[in-house]
Structure formats: C-alpha cells, structure tokens
UniProtKB/TrEMBL annotation:
Residue ranges of the region described as Disordered: 1-61
Annotated organism of origin: Reticulomyxa filosa
Residue ranges with Basic residues bias: 1-20
Sequence ranges of Basic and acidic residues compositional bias: 21-30, 40-61
Organism phylogeny: Eukaryota, Sar, Rhizaria, Retaria, Foraminifera
The name this protein goes by in its record: Uncharacterized protein
Length: 85
C-alpha cells in the first residue's frame, strides 16, 4: 500500500506566501500614495505661486478692481459719517 501524503504543510506555505505578498503590495501602495501626495502638494504650491503672481500683475484698470475699491471706501466713509452724526 502507498503511503498517503500529509496535506497540511504545503497549504500553510502557500497561505504564508499569499500573506507576505499582500503585505508587500500594501507597503508599495503606501509608498506610491506618499509619492503621489507629495507630487500633488508640489503642484498645489506651484499653482498658488502662479495665482499670487497673476494677482500682483493684475492691471488696476479692471472694472471689478475699481468697483471693489470704491465700495470699500464708500462703506468706510458712511460708517464715519454715521458716527459723526
């Protein structure tokens, strides 16, 4: 009669391999996420810098710019008048 092979050992080894693969995949995914997050932060910083540069270079001839300035001065003057009266 032939001896039967013991079945448990190989299954355990396969299970350990799968667990290790999952751990390695998770670690590599975390590293990739960190890289992507860093890249997104750099892109956001560049975009903010460009916006600030564009705002500085914004021409004062823009109607909205003058409108805002006039409205603010009007509000401040009206408050001063209210307190004066």
């Amino acid at each position: 009669m032939k001896k039967k092979k013991k079945k448990g050992h190989n299954k355990k080894r396969i299970r350990k391999k799968k667990i290790n693969e999952k751990k390695n995949n998770n670690e590599s995914e975390k590293k990739n996420k960190k890289k992507l997050f860093g890249m997104k932060q750099r892109e956001n910083e560049k975009a903010e810098e460009e916006k600030s540069i564009n705002e500085k270079e914004k021409k004062p001839t823009d109607r909205r710019y003058f409108q805002c300035k006039i409205d603010m001065t009007f509000v401040e003057d009206s408050k001063a008048l209210m307190f004066a009266i």
